[in-house]
Design goal:
This protein has 5 helices and 2 strands, in the order H-E-E-H-H-H-H. By secondary structure, the chain is mostly helical. A two-stranded antiparallel sheet has the order 1-2. Helix 2 packs across helix 3. It is globular, with a radius of gyration of 16 Å.
């Protein structure tokens, strides 16, 4: 038998946190890198998280509806040079990419329905 859970003192229900969907991450990894046009891709495709003031904070990873496909090289570059510079360099709007992928994903739709969003 499991021990009793501690009460949630934050006042936020557990289902109000960021959406986590391993199935959606796998879906996103099935696409080519957002910087593929550069022809400089290296490594496997990863589900890279798009961060904004609205979906993340210090030590808080955005929900899985905010991911885009990036090869290992470009994922690291996105972190190293920052999102605005990455978007300018490769001519990509990461927020729009994430939104389109989330709309195409049955996994995200299901997770949102389960939460009543």
């Amino acid at each position: 038998m499991l021990p009793r859970r501690k009460p949630n003192r934050s006042g936020i229900r557990d289902n109000d946190g960021p959406i986590r969907s391993p199935a959606h991450l796998a879906h996103v990894r099935g696409f080519v890198c957002v910087a593929f046009k550069s022809g400089e891709c290296e490594g496997r495709i990863e589900a890279a998280h798009y961060r904004s003031a609205a979906n993340a904070g210090t030590g808080v990873k955005p929900g899985d509806e905010w991911v885009f496909p990036a090869c290992a090289k470009h994922h690291q570059e996105q972190h190293r040079i920052g999102q605005p510079a990455f978007e300018a360099k490769y001519g990509v709007d990461l927020a729009k990419e994430c939104e389109a992928l989330a709309r195409s994903s049955a996994h995200i739709r299901r997770a949102k329905q389960e939460r009543g969003r």
